[in-house]
Amino acid sequence: MSDEHPVWDSWPGDVSWQPVSPRLAIVRILSLLLVGIPTGGLATLLSWLWWGSPWWQITASVLTAILLLRIVLTGRVVRAWGYAERADDLLIRHGLWTKRLSIVPYGRMQFIDLSANPLQRMFDLSTVKLHTASAGTDSTVPGLAPTEAAALRDRLAERANREREGL
């Protein structure tokens, strides 16, 4: 089976995919380490306390393997993120194992959030989150420079207002 899936790599017509910042990989790795090291340390401590049972040793080994795999794949996961602004909608793609392509019509956007946690701010990054009437909508564009994120928010809000006025 071929790994080439044109639906994920291109779009009919000219779509200019915008990547997210590579600094997002560093933020994601640091986030993994901030959670993974204490969790792994606790599992290791428990394996020493209950030496007769191998379950804590197995748990510590599995957690370490998962952490290392996620760290190794972080760069590829970040490179899979992209967004494209078209005339009537915003395209967002991401995913390494399960690829996802979301199409958010401008007329469906209710409000747009900008956010940045302390780690993101340390690396000068922001996240744009789109909210629609659907509670299940998960349309986010992480890893943008704050000025780029604010400009995207303003363009999306202006287009959403224009689309709603035309209804």
From TrEMBL:
Domain of life of the native organism: Bacteria
Domain YdbS-like PH: 78-156
Keywords recorded for this protein, A-Z: Membrane, Transmembrane, Transmembrane helix
Coiled coil: none
Any Pfam family hit: bPH_2
Entry's transmembrane regions: 25-49, 55-73
Tagged with keyword Transcription: no
Identification of the protein by name: YdbS-like PH domain-containing protein
Originating organism: Stackebrandtia endophytica
